Amino acid sequence: MSADPMRDEWYPVGLASRLRRAGRATALMGEPILVSGEAGGSARVTDGAGRELPVLMRYGHVWTSLGAPERDLFALPEAGQPGRRLVDVGVVRVRCSPLRAVENFLDIAHFPFVHTDILGAEPHTEVANYKVEIREDVDEVWATEVEFYQPQAAKSAEGGLTTRYMYRVPAPTASILYKTCPPRPSEWDVIALFVQPLAEDLCDVWPWMALFDDDTPMTDLIQFQQLIFLQDRSILENQIPRLLPLDPGMEIPTRADLTSVAYRRWLKRRGYRYGAQLVAQ
């Protein structure tokens, strides 16, 4: 294992459907890399010295690592479930810590104020009690029994409804949301955020979805999710400090921040430091 355990994690570095032979120059944790291949086929990733990096093709994306991952990429069984539409949303560049991007995705309380009349609306601002745990058997952060009123919970929703949520953090720069599926109440829609750390205060965010929605045009699904994240971007880019504080005394959490508190504790326990701030400055 590397001295920095985050170097041994898997990261998204491009869409499998948009590979090109000439390659796409990008970066990973401050180091230049080149992603090349055939669209929909195999991929190759090299670092600045021409060294070949490990490659996985999962969930519509190319994944790589600067180190030597000791475990496979986290499982998303919904990606292979019949009837789901798999949506590659694209990429959004954000001037913030990659860990801040994940934490914001876990935050429910900002819905009425940032995503007004879509994911939330006043006076429905209270975050009800929910459960958060670090599941030791899989070493992941989970938040369950989350409920929140939303005027338009999904593109397929007709009118407002109380939406049920579950959040899962299986990797330091990945978060998965399971939420009420309006067309199929017995199922969960899946919305994931895969984050590529370009630098400690800069990242590319690759949203991905696995939905039960046979009616909404693909373009509308993509635009809806891009709208949500672009609303988040201005907030993320103005957060202070820019890096994610891991010292519990640096920011004062509220009851609504239980998932964030568990995420920070989990990062600190596993020794993840890239994009984090350990002490007040």
UniProtKB/TrEMBL annotation:
Keywords, alphabetical: Oxidoreductase
Residue ranges occupied by any Vanillate O-demethylase oxygenase-like C-terminal catalytic domain in the UniProt entry: 94-269
Cross-referenced Gene3D superfamilies: Naphthalene 1,2-dioxygenase Alpha Subunit, Chain A, domain 1
GO MF annotation terms: oxidoreductase activity
Superkingdom of source: Bacteria
InterPro entries, A to Z: Cholesterol_7-desaturase, VanA_C_cat
Pfam families, sorted: VanA_C (PF19112)
SUPFAM superfamilies: Bet v1-like (SSF55961)
Protein name from the UniProt record: (2Fe-2S)-binding protein
Lineage: Bacteria, Pseudomonadati, Pseudomonadota, Alphaproteobacteria, Hyphomicrobiales
